[in-house]
Design a protein that fits this description.
The protein has one helix at 2-33; strands spanning 36-39, 54-61, 75-81, 85-90, 94-98, 103-106, 109-110, 116-117, 122-126, 131-135, 138-143, 148-153, 163-167, 170-182, 185-195, 201-212, 226-229, 232-235, 255-260, 263-271, 285-292, 296-303, 309-315, 320-325, 342-344, 347-355, 369-375. It is mainly beta and 377 residues long. The radius of gyration is 24 Å and the shape is globular.
C-alpha cells in the first residue's frame, strides 16, 4: 500500500512538471505571437516628406545673448516642459528658455563641488514638480530657478550613465558594468536602476549580459534608449560601440521592449535580411535606436554595405514602411538639407529638430531655431 501511494505521488509530481512546462511554453508562444514583426527592405531608398506624417510643426527662435550661445554639436538633450519652457542641455551647460524662445537663465555650473557637474551626459525632467535631473559623474537635481536641491553618487563600476528618464515618479537610469567575470568569461552587465525623488536606489531591472573575448573600456555611440510613448515605457538598448569589441555571440539587437513590473516584454521586432549578419559572420546592420508613437515606428541605423545613415519609418495604420537615407524632407519650412528628427523622451507623439536660419540682415550667426512637430494619429 505504501509503495502504491509513493508511486502515485511520483506520478503526480511528473504530471505537474509536464503541466507547468506546457503552460510555460504556451505562454511563451502567446507572447511571441503577439510580437509585431516589421520587415525592412534595406535596398529601398524612399524619401519621406514631413507633411506625410505630421499634423503640424511650429518653430521657436531661441534668443541669442552673451549667456545663451548654443553649440548644436554639443547638445545632448532637448526637453519640453509642460509646454511652457524649453531646456537645452549641452555637454557643459544647461539653458532655460520660455516657449516663445526668450532666454531665461542658465542652470548649474561646471566644477567638482556640490551641485556642480564636470560633463553632462544626459538630462531628465520631472514635469509635475518642475525638477531637472542631470546625469554626470553623479545625479544632480535642480529646480527651474536653478537652485541646487540634492545629488547622489553612482557606484564607480556603473559609470558612465548611459541614459536617464523620469517616468511615473521614478528616475530610470541605464548603467552597465563592463568588468564582470564568471565561469563563462568576461561580460557586460546592463541594468536599469530605479531611484525615488530622494535619489535613493529602490529597484533595478536587468537588461542583459553580453560576453566578450576580452574586456576593454568602451562606450555607446548613442544615448536615447528609454521613452514614454503610447502610454508605455519603451526600452531599446543597442550594442553600438565606439571602439570595436569581440563579442562571443554575434547578434543584432532588433527588438523594442516594454518595461512592465520590472520585466522586459518584447513588442516590436525589426526584421532585416539575414538578421543583419553577412555570410562571414559579421554584423552589417548597426541599429542605434527604435521607438514608437501611437501610429508610427521609427528606427535609426547604419548599413555597412550601403554607406550612410538611414532612418526608418513604419506606419502601423497602413502597414507601409519607408527606408530613408540621410534624413527626412522638410516640405513645410523648406529647409534644404535632409533632417533627422528626434523624439521627446517623455512623449513620442512629438519630435524636434534644430536648424540655424541665417538672414541677410544678421550681423552675427543666430542661435538655431527649434522646430517641434506633432505626429499624426
Amino acid at each position: 500500500m505504501f509503495f502504491i501511494i509513493k508511486l502515485f505521488i511520483l506520478f503526480m509530481k511528473f504530471y505537474l512538471f509536464i503541466l507547468i512546462n506546457i503552460l510555460f511554453f504556451a505562454c511563451n508562444e502567446i507572447n511571441m505571437s503577439e510580437l509585431h514583426v516589421i520587415h525592412i527592405n534595406t535596398d529601398q531608398d524612399s524619401p519621406l516628406p514631413l507633411s506625410s506624417i505630421v499634423e503640424e510643426i511650429k518653430s521657436i527662435e531661441l534668443e541669442l545673448t552673451d549667456e545663451s550661445l548654443i553649440n548644436p554639436s554639443q547638445i545632448v538633450r532637448v526637453c519640453l516642459l509642460n509646454n511652457s519652457h524649453v531646456i537645452i542641455a549641452e555637454k557643459n551647460q544647461i539653458l532655460l528658455f520660455s516657449i516663445d524662445g526668450t532666454f531665461i537663465r542658465s542652470i548649474g555650473s561646471r566644477g567638482q563641488g556640490p551641485g556642480e557637474f564636470i560633463n553632462i551626459l544626459n538630462l531628465a525632467i520631472d514635469e509635475k514638480n518642475k525638477h531637472i535631473f542631470v546625469g554626470s559623474s553623479k545625479i544632480i537635481c535642480y529646480d527651474l530657478d536653478g537652485t541646487f536641491l540634492r545629488e547622489s553618487y553612482i557606484a564607480p563600476e556603473w559609470l558612465p550613465i548611459k541614459d536617464i528618464n523620469y517616468i511615473n515618479n521614478e528616475l530610470l537610469i541605464i548603467v552597465e558594468n563592463v568588468d564582470m567575470k564568471d565561469s563563462k568569461g568576461a561580460f557586460q552587465h546592463s541594468v536599469v536602476l530605479k531611484m525615488n525623488n530622494n535619489l535613493q536606489i529602490i529597484d533595478s531591472c536587468a537588461i542583459r549580459d553580453t560576453y566578450f573575448q576580452q574586456t576593454t573600456k568602451y562606450s555607446h555611440a548613442f544615448h536615447d534608449f528609454i521613452f514614454l510613448g503610447n502610454e508605455n515605457i519603451q526600452l531599446y538598448y543597442s550594442d553600438i560601440y565606439s571602439n570595436r569589441q569581440n563579442p562571443l555571440e554575434i547578434v543584432l539587437r532588433d527588438t523594442l521592449y516594454l518595461m512592465k513590473n520590472n520585466h522586459l516584454i518584447p513588442e516590436i521586432k525589426l526584421k532585416f535580411k539575414n538578421d543583419g549578419i553577412d555570410g562571414y559572420g559579421n554584423k552589417f546592420i548597426h541599429l542605434y535606436n527604435i521607438y514608437r508613437s501611437s501610429r508610427y515606428v521609427f528606427a535609426f541605423y547604419r548599413n555597412d554595405y550601403r554607406p550612410g545613415l538611414y532612418n526608418f519609418c513604419y506606419d502601423l495604420q497602413t502597414g507601409k514602411g519607408y527606408n530613408i537615407k540621410d534624413g527626412y524632407t522638410d516640405d513645410i519650412y523648406k529647409i534644404q538639407r535632409p533632417l533627422r528628427i528626434l523624439p521627446f523622451n517623455l512623449d513620442t507623439e512629438f519630435f524636434y529638430y534644430l536648424h540655424t536660419n541665417i538672414h541677410d540682415y544678421d550681423l552675427v550667426e543666430p542661435n538655431p531655431t527649434l522646430y517641434i512637430g506633432k505626429l499624426k494619429k
